[in-house]
Structures are given as C-alpha cells and as structure tokens.
Amino acid sequence: MADDAMLSGTHILVTAGPTHEPIDPVRYLANRSSGKQGFAIAAALARLGARVTLVAGPVMLETPPCVLRVDVETALEMAAAVEAALPVDAAVMVAAVADWRVEGAAQKIKKGLETPVLRLVENPDILATLARSALRPPLLIGFAAETERVVEHATAKRLRKAVDWIVANDVCGDVMGGDANTVHIVTATGVESWERMAKDVVAGRLAERIAKTVMEHKRG
Questions:
Q1: What gap in Å lies between CA 52 and CA 64, rounded to an integer?
Q2: DSSP states of 56-73
Q3: Integer Cα distance of 95 and 75 in angstroms
Q4: Virtual CA dihedral for 122, 123, 129, 130, nearest 10 degrees?
Q5: Are the CB atoms for 15 and 82 separated by under 8 Å?
Q6: What is the Cα–Cα distance from 113 to 20, expressed in whole angstroms?
Q7: Rounded-to-integer distance, Cα 80 and Cα 69, Å
C-alpha cells in the first residue's frame, strides 16, 4: 500500500467525462462517458497527497475532496483548460473528447421537409498536442475506449499519440456509465491486463502505479 503522502508536493492533471458539441442552442453531439473513472482517479491521487486539477466535461458527479475542479463543456474549452493547468508532474487524460464539432446554428433548427445537413469540423487532439508541448509532463497517460481488438488498437494509439501509457478498456456492455471496468495498461515494455473490478479499485491501483513512476522521475 502506498504512503498517503507519497505525492505531496506534486501537481497532477486529470481530465474526465464527455464533451458536448453544440448543434444549435438546444441540441448537441456527445458520447456516453459518465466521468466516473476519471473522477475516481482524481480522488485516489488526491488521497496520496497530490495537488489535483480535474478538468471535467458535463457530468452529474460530486467533486472529490481536495481536488480543484474546472468545468468545461466543449473540446475547445477542455483544450484551453488543460493548457492553463500546466505545468504538471503527470497528466491522466481520461476524458472522452468528441472528435468533431458542428458548425453550429445560431437559432434552433426547425423540423421541416428537408433533413438538415450537419457540417463537422475536426476538434483539436488534446492528448497529441500535450505530447508535443514544451510543457509535456514527465508522465503522460492516455485512455482508449475500444469495441474490438482492444490491446492492438491501444498499442497503436500509444505510438501514434507519443504518450507513455495507454489505459485501454472494452466499452461494449455496461462499462460506460457502469461502476466496474476491465483495463489493460499498455507501456513501452508491454501490456499488463487487470481483472474486472470496481472503478474505484481500478483508480486506487492506477494511482499507486502513477505515484511510484512520478517519484522515480523526481529522484532522477
């Protein structure tokens, strides 16, 4: 078990939840991310003594104790909040950021004879941008929600995004919105697969692993 003050003096960034991309003033594009895993990780890191900044998309969750929460709605807002939080000792990018946004309408789109056409614009890649930043954290962790070939896709994503770890899971079934998760930790040295467990247990184990790595970096 890790020391409760192991991360004292460190600053860790966590992102969590979905982003909502407006279509018009009353509609938006989103995904099914509940934010539960990201919030649990933020809470676990704070319990280990870290100063935690949690950038949260639109979710109905209570802020974990001793965590600074920054609420955002869109991917562009999340990107700005991430940049504002730097520098940090580690970043755990759990949020399921929308890949695209819509060229939004100023007024509500009315139902009519013709089906409206939505023009999509690619959102910034927050994880890849952070990996290229001059303020890149010593430990940068991404998440991958997959529906097939989970480890294969996560391994490719780690290389493509130039991050240290990818935490991958299969989101088929009740994972999104549920209270349990099965994850695979993909690093430069291999893959570690964990059994299905409650999300707060996943968070605790992951936080301890993060703490050990962060402190190794600090010791040089």
A1: 10
A2: E-S---PPPTTEEEEE--
A3: 10
A4: -160
A5: yes
A6: 27
A7: 14
Specify whether the CB–CB gap between 116 and 141 falls below 8 A.
Answer: no
Residue 198, burial from CB neighbour count under 10 angstroms (0-12, 13-18, 19+): middle
Which residues, including other chains, have CB under 8 Å from residue 99's CB and lie 6 or more apart? 122, 123
Label residues 88-123 b or e (16+ Cβ within 10 Å = b): bbbbbbbbbbbeebbebeeeeeeeeeeeeeeeeeeb
Residue 101's DSSP bridge partners are 121
Among candidates 16, 9, 50, 15, which has minimal Cα distance to 207?
50
Per-residue pLDDT of the chain (220 residues; tens, 9 = 90+): 456 789 999 999 999 999 999 999 999 998 888 999 999 999 999 999 999 999 999 999 999 999 999 999 999 999 999 999 999 999 999 999 999 999 877 888 888 768 888 899 999 999 999 999 999 999 999 998 877 888 999 999 999 999 999 999 887 655 555 788 889 999 999 999 999 999 999 999 999 999 999 999 888 7
Strand extents, DSSP E, 72-200: 90-93, 100-102, 120-122, 139-146, 165-170, 180-181, 183-187, 190-193, 197-198
Q: For this structure, is 169 an active site residue?
A: no
**In which residue are the tokens 């940049």 written?**
83
